[in-house]
Design brief:
The complex is a heterodimer of chains A (118) and B (312). Chain A has 2 helices and 6 strands, in the order H-E-H-E-E-E-E-E. Chain A is α+β, with helices and mostly antiparallel strands and 118 residues long. Chain A folds into 2 domains: 84 residues, hypothetical protein PF0899 fold; 33 residues. Chain B is globular. Strand 6 of chain A pairs antiparallel with strand 1 of chain B. Chain B: InterPro entries: CobW/HypB/UreG_nucleotide-bd, Hyd_mat_HypB, P-loop_NTPase.
């Protein structure tokens, strides 16, 4: 259940950013979670509700963009979805793939701040 | 009205930065950190007892740090090998992180240690996400656990530089289908070596020591495909949606935290680590004490206090 640790880091980072931008409250945090990142989106949402309590994110939403795992076979140029669990072999020429193109993301991409009242 | 602030930061950037700094510091001292991952009951401690004794018998200075939710039983067992051992109790936390590990190494790790084995919390899920500053990640599984485990825990198996099968002396008795296991391993981590071991018979123990010592001698590690993720965090970011939301800010300061995920570009990152610890020659046993920085800072500087104390 490391989603709670991860949610706590997300809340801390968002609070820091809000302070730096002179905002008191955060409306939403957008994150990208790769399907091979080892993080369960539902567990992250649940943990976020716990982690945000008593912070500037008290009522903030967590918007999760799930990123599919993809790989490219360098020798033959085939770009393919690896699936979960991943199958890291080229479906066309059956060579092992050397790297993923996507699917390991665990990142904050944006925060939405409540505009200070004018 | 709300405004959108674009950021581009790996959630675990702070851990990754600390891990990178620790890797650089250990590298400068000639210490290789080996992170051992497995389920509870995989026989990790029993195998490590044999490995520590075998390394000590070869005259290689090794040390071990073992993490558990509770009890010091593992440290007592490992200490029988006669090498320096430290127990970390995570107090219920499911994984070790780089800051926690570093705080336990400070003032304890003997200065001449060539290999530091870190026995992570028995868990195949959470520890897989946390880079501890290891050069080599080893995932262990016993023959009693089921051939499909690599598919159920792809991060634990897919990010490992070496896989170790344990308790192979009872493989036949429990009907372990080794070919199916190896096929599943190849699916998530093509090209990784699977080493068969038995702590009871000693099979594979010397080979495991060989593999680790090869890394201390600068040998080339296997590169897991999952660890070689193209690193979207590096990529150019354009959030079209941001443009339609009121004001739009690019937060340059946050754009490029250390984006290396666990297992990604370890060697390169260690090699690039600046500062005296990564410089030529060995850092004295009191570590890079002159380097400024705070423990737990996220500015990439290593903490001021050195890790090492002279071996008694």
């Amino acid at each position: 259940m490391h989603e709670l640790s991860i949610a706590t880091v997300i809340v801390e980072r968002a609070e820091e950013l809000a302070r730096r931008h002179g905002a008191e409250r955060v409306d939403a945090v957008r994150v990208r979670v790769g399907e091979l990142a080892g993080v369960v989106p539902d567990a992250l949402l649940f943990s976020f509700e716990v982690a945000r309590q008593g912070t500037a994110l008290d009522e903030a939403r967590l918007l999760i963009e799930e990123v599919p795992g993809r790989a490219r076979c360098e020798p033959c140029g085939t770009d393919f979805a690896v699936g979960v669990p991943p199958f890291l072999w080229c479906p066309r020429c059956e060579r092992p793939c050397e790297r993923l193109l996507s699917g390991r993301e665990l990142e904050i991409t944006a925060i939405e701040l409540e505009e200070a009242s004018v | 009205m709300c405004r959108v602030v674009d950021v581009r930061q790996a959630v675990l950037a702070k851990n990754d930065t600390l891990a990178g700094a620790l890797r650089g510091e250990l590298d400068g001292r000639g210490t290789v950190l080996v992170n051992l991952l497995s389920s509870p009951g995989s026989g990790k401690t029993a195998l490590l007892e044999r490995v520590l004794a075998a390394a000590a018998a070869r005259g290689v200075p090794v040390a071990a740090l073992t993490a558990d939710l509770a009890t010091e039983n593992d440290a007592r067992r490992l200490a029988r090998s006669g090498v320096p051992v430290r127990q970390v109790l995570t107090g219920g936390l499911c994984h070790l992180d780089a800051a926690q590990l570093r705080s336990h190494l400070a003032g304890w790790l003997p200065g001449d240690t060539r290999v530091l084995f870190v026995e992570n919390v028995g868990n195949l899920v959470c520890p897989a996400s946390y880079d501890l500053g290891e050069t080599m990640r080893v995932t262990l599984m016993s023959v009693t656990e089921g051939e499909d485990k690599p598919l159920k825990y792809p991060a634990a198996f897919g990010l490992a530089h070496l896989l170790v099968l344990t308790k192979t002396d009872i493989a036949a008795a429990v009907g372990f289908a080794e070919a199916a296991f190896r096929e599943n391993v190849a699916r998530v981590n093509p090209g990784v070596e699977v080493l068969n071991t038995s702590a009871r018979t000693g099979d594979g123990v010397e080979t495991l020591v060989d593999r680790v010592l090869a890394v201390t001698a600068g040998g080339v590690l296997h590169r897991p495909a999952m660890a070689e993720a193209a690193g979207d965090v590096h990529g150019h970011h354009h959030d079209a949606a941001g443009d339609v939301h009121g004001h739009h800010h690019h937060d340059a300061a946050d754009g490029h935290g250390h984006p290396h995920g666990p297992g990604s570009g370890r060697q390169d990152q260690a090699a690039q680590e600046p500062g005296p610890a990564a410089g030529p020659g060995r850092v004295p046993a009191d570590g890079p004490g002159a380097v400024p920085g705070r423990n737990g800072s996220d500015d990439g500087r290593r903490p001021a206090d050195g890790l090492a104390v002279p071996r008694p």
